[in-house]
Design goal:
With 225 residues, this protein is of the alpha+beta class. The protein contains nine helices and seven strands; from the N terminus they run αβααααααββαββββα. The protein has a seven-stranded antiparallel beta sheet.
């Protein structure tokens, strides 16, 4: 589904004119301190389990897992043979790509972006994270960048198919409270975006696509302090 198709679905389903959209998810929520969890009303910290129909489908597909593993091994072996036959220019391109990935991983670690949020449970991001699965038990969110701010949509409960047909708005964050940020300003091709709140706290989301429509939208925006 193209970015334009997703925007059309959002308009038809939710009646919202979005500047950019993409499906996203968050990493595993760490266990908060007991007093923080209690003060928040002991909200769920994990998405709901797969619906029974999906679990049956996974069980039926289990016998094919060894075949899939074998196919992956064969594909890896084929890739290794191709690499050994690469021309000098191709080897240099691959080496440059590997160096770029190392720089990206180092930048992620340096900014603590391998965590789902900044770690302050009392900050705006931490408090919003505590309510994440109270808004919806589905494991994904459609993130909409609009002129008014950030909108998150999802099915109220976890589904295995038809997420677009069942989604509804589950959270709105006005532009005065938070902004959407590419922490690398397009330097690296990643799926990482931050919802950065006005108190400086942040929440990491990962988009379904690398350098998604949301990333490209942010690159087109004027730089701010």
């Amino acid at each position: 589904m193209t970015p334009t198709d997703k925007q059309r679905v959002v308009m038809d389903r939710l009646g919202i004119q979005a500047e950019a959209v993409d499906w996203c998810w968050i990493g595993k929520i760490p266990q908060p301190p007991a007093d923080v969890l209690q003060a928040a009303g002991n909200p769920p910290l994990r998405p709901a389990r797969l619906p029974p129909l999906s679990m049956i489908g996974m069980a039926l597909g289990a016998p094919f897992i060894p075949l899939l593993i074998l196919l992956r091994l064969l594909s890896a072996a084929e890739e290794a043979v191709k690499r050994s036959l690469d021309r000098k220019e191709e080897k240099e391109q691959r080496r440059a790509k590997e160096e770029e990935e190392k720089r990206r991983d180092a930048a992620i670690a340096q900014q603590d972006l391998d965590n789902v949020f900044d770690g302050n449970w009392h900050g705006d991001a931490g408090q919003f994270l505590l309510r994440w699965y109270s808004h919806s038990t589905h494991h994904e969110r459609m993130l909409l960048a609009t002129r008014e701010g950030i909108v998150l949509a999802a099915p109220p409960r976890r589904v295995s198919v038809g997420r677009e047909k069942r989604m509804e708005v589950v959270a709105r964050i006005p532009a005065s409270e938070a902004t959407l940020v590419d922490p690398f300003s397009g330097e690296f091709e990643t799926s990482i975006l931050l919802i950065r709140f006005r108190d400086g706290s942040w929440l990491r989301v990962d988009t379904e696509e690398l350098r998604s429509d949301l990333h490209m939208y942010l690159l087109r925006q004027p730089l701010t302090d």
